[in-house]
Every structure is written in C-alpha cells, then in structure tokens.
Amino acid sequence: MSTNYYLKYNICECCNRFDKIHIGKSSAGWQFVFRGHGEDFMPVLQTYDQWMDFIENQLYEETAKIVNEYGKEIEYQEFINMVKEKQENPKNKVHNFTAYNYIDVRGYNFCSTQFS
Asked: Which of 34, 48, 71, 112 has the fewest Cβ atoms within 10 angstroms?
C-alpha cells in the first residue's frame, strides 16, 4: 500500500483556489521517496533541505497545508516524523530502480520525474 503527499499552497480564502505540488510517496517497506522538481518548478526542490525550507515557508504564511491523495490534511510534524521513521528503518528498501532516482546529500530518496 502506498500514499502520495502533496503541498496545497497559495490557498485563497475567498474562492478556495490553490496551487498543488507533489511532495512524494510513502510505500510499505520502502523509504519515503521525494519528488524532485528542477527546471519545471521554482524554487528548485531537489534535496530534503530545499523541500523542508519550501514547506516551512509556505506553512508560515498560513496559506498552505500538507494533504494526502485522499484529501486528508496532515500536520507538519506528523509528516516529518513519518518521513524520518521510514528513513531510519533499516528494513526499508531504497528507491533506486530507474535512471530518474537519486539520493540527496543527506541520504533521502528522490525521483526526478513524475510518478504516482
């Protein structure tokens, strides 16, 4: 079983319009895999630290929230804890099965192309 996570941001209080970007995916038995965004998105989100800075900045503005693919809102700390637990579990496998997968400088898994 797997679940995709998204950041809904720039949420308009008046009309409820928002932007949405794929953060990544949690799958049973695997480390969390982040979606790397390069030239297709600004700012560039190709490392764990870049992602965390972007999420924190958006949440600070209070116009964003983390949601899963089923629309359930996830608290920031709950999301961080889930990623950390999956990262630190030695039984979890690493996503490295395509040319689009890479490991960032802190050891987090990334995929630089669209996936679900």
From this structure: 71
